[in-house]
Specification:
- The structure is a single chain.
- Helices cover 47% and strands 17% of the residues.
- The longest helix has 22 residues.
- Strands 1, 2, 3, 4, 5, 6, 7, 8 and 9 form a 9-stranded mixed beta sheet that branches.
- It contains 13 helices and 9 strands.
- Helix 5 crosses helix 12, helix 8 crosses helix 13 and helix 9 crosses helix 13.
Amino acid sequence: MNRIGLVAIGRNEGERLRQCLSSIVGKVENAVYVDSGSTDNSVEIAKSLGIDVVELDLSIPFTAARARNTGFQFLVQNNPQLKYVQFVDGDCEIVEGWLEKAEQKLEQNSDLAVVCGRRRERYPDASIYNRLCDIEWNTPIGETNACGGDAMIRVQAMQQVSGFNPQIIAGEEPELCVRLRQKGWKIYRLDAEMAIHDAQMTRFSQWWKRHLRAGYAYAQGASLHGKPPENHWVRETRSIWLWGLMIPLLSVSLIPFTQNWSLLLLLAYLMLTFRTYWNMQSLDDINANDRGYYALSCVIGKFPQLQGQLKFYTLYLLGKRATLLIEYK
């Protein structure tokens, strides 16, 4: 596959990185691993598999966007014939046959900039948090507005928008897709297995931090592209503030004036949980219990997401930006 390059990024992924890179050895001739300051043996693992390695400068804040851009630039400079680049996180494994399916779709549709597929959790039954991730990856098939960290992108399109925004510490893929769509490109999700992800989430604190990161991403995305016609993540941001702050604040603050009747406002959370659960009825491959867990997670997740929003806007008002990754592992 001389026309396809692959960029894997990671930080302290260890054996997960070995599985990731082993899945593409012999299938992609042009591959690079970009390391963001690992303190384990990740770099040695990549080199032992014959994969080119780029280690990011420690003096500049790490972001996944910066790592992906660095890998992309390395590949294109060394292999100018490349047409497509598959991006993959170091905790993911590319599924057999995916690269061929993605390339074929891009070859057949010159207006597509990005093709992605189904990402699955390696151990969905290891914890409820892993299972929630597996449900989250089950996004609609067809033309879509955004992709995740695993996707194949047309080199021409990537260069046209100057790649990922390296200032974004989370949610950089949807932000890239906003700029691609503004240039007339399209994003498509195939009905095909793409990658196996290893979340390794076993603690509530990990789940909380992952939602905190999402809240930060929503806020940063809305600040960049929140104006019409994109309205990027404006609805999500408003929902976080409504459910994470306004309803609880209103419910409690009105207690002295309503003889505790204002606490009935909290019943709205039950209604939201049920509505989310009901909207998942069409997903036949998800059982009732998992739909319930996922609906509950979406509602409770408003609170760590609010914390992420507050983190972003605090830094924004101070004229600063986050200099550390928000990692849940």
